[in-house]
Amino acid sequence: MQALPKNPRVLVVTPEVTYLPEGMGNIANYLTAKAGGLADVSAALIAALFEQDADVHVAMPDYRTIFSDHFGPLWPTLQKEIEILENTMPDERIHLAQDQAFFYLHHVYSGYEWQNIKIALAFQREVINNIIPRVRPDLIHCNDWMTGLIPAVARQRGIPCLFTVHNIHTVKASLAQIEDRGIDGAAFWKHLYYENEPLNYANARENIAVDFLTSGIFAAHFVNTVSPSFLLEIADGRHRFIKAYLRTEFRNKLHSECAVGILNAPDPSYNPKTDKALARQYEASGHVEGKLANKRVLQQHLGLVQDDQAPVFFWPSRLDPVQKGCQLLADIMYQIVSRYRDLNLQIVFVANGEFKPHFAEIVKFHQLSDRAAICDFDEKLARLAFGASDFVLMPSLFEPCGLPQMIGPIYGCLPVAHDTGGIHDTVRHLDADSDKGNGFLFETFDSGGLDWAINEAVRFYNLPAEVKATQLRRIMAESVKTFNHSVTAGRYIDLYEMMLRRPLVKRKG
User: Which residue in 103, 146, 225, 311 has a CA-CA distance of 20 to 30 Å to 329?
Assistant: First the structure.
């Protein structure tokens, strides 16, 4: 990893973050707002930048209620100290955008699009009007649709800007709405992306919606997705749900060598050696005894058949039939459990989502309550399931990155997954004879493909104990070295370094 040149000032603009390194901003270091993997990646990147002695600054919304919920009775004292710091220490590195639009939110995002637009505009107004002029960054790193207008401002002001796409989600608003929220859209309107090509500013202002996510991609100097394969899949038109114009903008960036894929990584707390949610902590060298102890606790807790030799499959992600492929498992769930009844094969769900009632009905109709457990999502239970299970199910139709297929192997829980997106970049089909691979992949997205992959997993499970143990020791050791935030942050830092060295020049003519 190369050091960044001349201590650049980098402004990371993110709607969510978990932890921040000591020394960045005194009491504000303890602010936490998380909805997904973006929070963890932002935190890891900021910490790595700080360790590299980069002059890193962070802009995020002032989620007062979320912060209050996180810290409980301690919050009033912390809030007073934060207000003092904001008023007396302009050189602080953490910049909280302030607006009542997000003061009283209990979640980072709302369930209503109109409110999300309001939140996004309030956040970006403060970043554009106050935080960027105060920080005067050498480079701006924006994340997802809630920051989608800022790359246009950065391009107008000649500041290199990286835009990271974590999820293919967007909102739309007219220039009139944007300006009514206090953002001078007239200054950078030509760098935004519209649903239809505007004839002039007046025509654009009232009549044509601005797409936030596509604007970020269109205006940014560089773009990245959170896995290399997902970027190529978008550009190649592999996913029908992605709009043609969004695909075109990705393709343009890719052909201009201004787009890359950088894998996310699991939070470092996902470590079976230190994970307090486990009934028994373990490492690669002692994983057999450790996983067995956790399996016994999980089976007892969920009312499953108590069997040390039973293969346990774990469903870790939301039960969403659009992306996660849960309908494929529903089609074959009874056949799988019946086929391996002598093995007492078990399936554990720790997930919420619209498809959950379907699995509950399958379990009830076929009387599988001692073979399949369907639980609401719970962080501690999910971690215990990683430690107790032998396989993690991820038959996703598409996956921008995915984390369970990386977390699982760290715990000795091998992925059974559809070969797509970030899964393709992180899972290789296991070949025990060659000491290669870390999971079981199927290529055709249908229940037959998933059925084949589960059979492959069970075939591996039935190998001699020492063969299995040798493979799991290898996979666990490799996963810890490969799937970590240090690797991810290093790639972002290399990209920053390249962007800062690349001159921003206008082509003649």
Answer: 225
Nearest residue to 289 (alpha-carbon basis) of 23, 504, 473, 67: 473
Q: Are strands 9-13 and 55-61 parallel, antiparallel or unpaired?
A: parallel
Cβ 327 vs Cβ 321: under 8 Å = yes
The CA distance from 32 to 17, in Å, is: 6
Averaged over 184-191, what is the pLDDT? 94
Can you give the pTM of this predicted structure?
0.87
Token pair, residue 472, equals 């799991």
Rounded average pLDDT over 251-255:
94
Q: What are phi and psi of 210, to 5 degrees?
A: -90, 130
Q: What is the CA radius of gyration of the chain?
A: 24
Distance between the two ends of the chain, CA-based, in angstroms? 38
- Is a pLDDT exceeding 90 seen at residue 6? no
E strand or H helix at 415: strand 414-418
Q: Are the CB atoms for 227 and 422 separated by under 8 Å?
A: yes
| Residue listed under structure tokens 């459990």 | 337
Type of residue found at 369? S
Name the band, by pLDDT with cuts 50, 70 and 90, for residue 94: confident
Q: Which positions ≥6 away from 371 have C-beta within 8 Å? A: 304, 305, 337, 344, 345, 346, 347
The label of the residue with tokens 């201004």 reads 258
Mean pLDDT computed over every residue of the chain: 89
Query: Which residues, 6 or more positions from 377, have their beta carbon under 8 angstroms from its beta carbon?
Result: 318, 350, 351, 352
Neighbours of 308 (CB within 10 A): 9
Q: How far apart are CA 442 and CA 445, in angstroms?
A: 8
pLDDT confidence of residue 47:
82
- Candidates 165, 358, 368; CA nearest to 260 is 165
Could you report the per-residue pLDDT of 108-125, keeping only the tens digit for each? 777 778 888 999 999 999
What is the pLDDT, as a whole number, of residue 66? 63
Q: How crowded is residue 42: how many other Cβ atoms within 10 Å of its Cβ?
A: 26
- Is pLDDT at 282 greater than 80 in this prediction? yes
DSSP secondary structure code for residue 129 in this structure? I
Q: What is the pLDDT of residue 70?
A: 55
> DSSP 3-state assignment of 329?
helix
